[in-house]
Request: fold
Amino acid sequence: MKHRGYYGGFGGAFLPEILIPTFDELVSAFESAKTDPGFRKQYESLMAEYSGRPTPLTFAANLTRHFGGAKIYIKREDLNHTGAHKANNVMGQGLLVKKMGKQRVIAETGAGQHGVACATMAARFGFDCTIYMGEKDVMRQRPNVFWMEQLGATVVPVTDGTKILKDAINQAFRDWVTNMDTTHYVLGTACGPHPFPEMVTWFQSIIGIEARQQIMEREGRLPDRVYACVGGGSNAMGLFSGFMDDPVELVGVEAGGKGIDSGFHAARLSSADASYGIAQGYKTFFLQNDDGQMKETHSISAGLDYVGVSPILAHMHENKTARFESATDAEVVNALKLTMKTEGIIPALESAHAFAGAFREAPALLRDQILIINQSGRGDKDIFTIADALNDADWKTFIQTKAAQYHA
Amino acid sequence: MLETYIRNRQKKKNLLLMTHIVMGYPSFDACHDIIDQMVAAGVDLMELQIPFSEPMADGPVILRANQTALERGATVVKCMAFAKEMAARYPIPFLFMTYANIPYKFGMAAFAKATADIHLTGAIVPDMPMEEGTEYIQAMQENLLSPIQMFSPSTSDVRMAQIASIASGFIYCLARKGVTGADTDFSDDLTQYLDRCRKAASVPLAVGFGIHDKADMDFLRGKADIAVIGSQTIRVAEDHGVNSVREFIQGLLPAA
Ligand SMILES: Cc1ncc(COP(=O)(O)O)c(C=O)c1O
Reply:
């Protein structure tokens, strides 16, 4: 362990001794991949062939007209294979797993998107695959559990702790400390011990690199602001990576849940409720009490319902190279409805946070200004949650009829 | 000094016994009873775990004990007060066991000072590897406490030597991969690994993870200095009641 992955005071690798050699191996596999132009090329052609990259940058003419302010563009990560940006990270780590000669992958998942992506990667590369998922998320995202299992993965519901994403991460680590000789842990976001924040960002940077090129081709100039939702921070880091050295404002939108004042949220950077801490192998802002016990978080979207946040984003928050906002569950549902009706696009509930954040600011901007919103995923997976949020009567009748059929 | 205590104690018996409890589980009163029985049964040192919400290195038994202790209101302040009382009442060394975030939030210097003030002898923090532990190790050393270091079967000889160079008190050798609570294969591999540990370190060696009966203890005699029992005493107390702990511990030791 030489370079320990610090971003200001954040990051590091707070590992149990047993995992030190595993991380040494991972760091060296990643370092050699990073400096090998052939590896990035292999990665990009895999993403083109398997996941349909580059994903489009869609001009949202109707939303632009609706708000009467800045021009709104949408980066369409929902059009990746499996419907979210998670594929970018998973396929990249899959290539590394092949390089390291391991045969088994494990992953945590919140929304289930990362789990599904990981299961497709494992199927394609011929790896055994186990996915840990909090019991509460299993309930929220049952369709994704179905797909993971159809793809050949074993899904293990995690019944400890708060039964959501952080608990699934703990359980994946417990598997890893037992099976590290055969197994790689495909962490799904830009969090955790070094090299994960850097490595996941490196794979996800494909989003921002493409988006920058696409907007330059379309508009001949850079956007003024770019928006991404922030769970662990991987889609945000991916988009921001394209604009790090540019005069572009980077805006991350966290889960405001029932409102910051209610205490039921997952806003680590945009509220005053989080503080420095060490957990899950790294140092960042955590939502925790004064003793250092992690709190229960809340969000309508399983993918943003997490106590920690990327150490790279924590650093950008502190040195003010990015700005962080939050959007409440209610705002998110409204942003989702509007986007569906005006553009015929269905963002994931996670992504809809970025839309809500951008919609709040768009009207006050000038018509020649440009925004890019990262649509990290598609919303079809959220059909149960969204139908509940919209209180859709016909859907309820359908479910009841379907259930009755199973009983018959 | 912890090491001196261990060496002196070894003049009477060659393999010492360290046990582990999670403070506040099932309750502070029950913890007191368990410690009372453990000391009476001849336990030589004890780990007092300050519960943490994310105990990454712990298996199901200790994990649930952590969770339940927190649900029942265990706090760092209560744990400190409890540990102070135990250290004053019983003549054996007590160490804290916890995860990095607890001393980090408390403040490393303040945590070390508080630990010394209540007469504990050191701490075991499994997610604080040498590289991340500079401030912690220094704070502990300034207070003449032992920040216990760890070896694992995957630790290279080179790294063992580095870890040994900053070790004090004893080194905690993980008997195997994995988390607390699962079974360990007491085999030739373990013997070879403990040989490597012995060559690398001059301080005493404690061996933990998966030790649960007298046969395991007998295997370790002569190969290690301290056997550590964690999950098994929690299981015994859960299955047979707090009052069965003494008999269980006595059953591990050679007949007097
Ligand atoms: C569609 C989608 N967007 C965003 C996220 C949040 O993750 P991150 O912040 O790492 O992009 C998730 C996580 O599950 C997701 O599924």
Summary: Residues A 84, 86, 110-111, 113-114, 189, 229-236, 303-304, 348, 350-351, 376-377 surround pyridoxal-5'-phosphate (CB under 6 Å). Residues 14-48+85-196 of chain A form a domain with the Rossmann fold fold (CATH 3.40.50.1100). The CA atoms of residues 76 and 375 of chain A lie 5 Å apart. The interface with chain B takes residues 1, 4, 12-18, 20-22, 160-161, 166, 170, 173-174, 177-180, 275-281, 286, 288, 290-294 of chain A (CB under 8 Å).
